[in-house]
Amino acid sequence: MIRGELMGLNSSFVNDLLLKEVLLEKNSVKDIDASPCIADPNRIKYTAKIGRNLDDVLPVLFLATLNSRLTRDPVMLSFTTQQHNFLLGEKGGLAVTFVKDKEEIQYINDKVIELINKAIKYRLTNHMNLEKFIEKKKKITPLSLYDILPKTDCRACSENTCFNYAAKILTGEARLDACPYLEHGVIRRFVTPVNLAWSLDLSS
């Protein structure tokens, strides 16, 4: 009994050590180069370098982020949230637009590292067929999302029609839980098959 418990502890300890070796530290974002946004000079755009190749985790991040695109050659992920455009490259390149100030740059960098670490953990502990879900997500359109909505046009989601709601979900302009007729999580599972429990607060 005791031996079994010790073996369990040892296994957990070994796993923690392995994760410590592969996870990124908060200060892993380097070479930050900031300049005014072209569209809004009062906002900042910046590029940076993350201290790790990301080719193995970008497919996971594609499945976990809304309004995202994944290219293959080179492997790059782009997504938009709250007017901020994000670009992550396979060699660790990072670019972000519409940033408020230097404090927000630091906040975003910390959250990006958090997101990447969640994807690393997911990659190490899950063995789902990513390619199958990637191809399925790439085929999602407003019409395919509309098919799972109630089609009542009740406006409870604040949109005039269910189709408008579907379209705005895919552009990141509508909340995933705004439809009162669907079970909680149905839309999120449809548009983001991987749930990394990650969010940004860029409302200010």
Describe the overall structure.
This protein is α+β, with helices and mostly antiparallel strands and 204 residues long. The protein folds into two domains: 25-133, TATA-Binding Protein; 140-191, Electron transport complex subunit B, putative Fe-S cluster (3-methyladenine DNA Glycosylase II, Chain A, domain 3). It is built from seven helices and six strands, in the order αββαββββααααα. It has a six-stranded antiparallel sheet with strand order 1-2-6-5-4-3, with helices on one face. A hairpin with a 7-residue loop joins β1 and β2 (44-50). It is globular and about 50 Å long. The protein starts with a helix and ends in a 13-residue tail after the last helix. Mean pLDDT is 87; it is low at 1-7.
Question: Any chance you could write out the topology, listing elements then pairs?
Answer:
Elements: H1 2-22, E1 29-36, E2 44-50, H2 58-64, E3 68-72, E4 75-81, E5 84-89, E6 93-99, H3 102-125, H4 130-138, H5 142-146, H6 162-170, H7 186-191
Antiparallel strand pairs: 1-2, 2-6, 3-4, 4-5, 5-6
Helix pairs in contact: 2-4
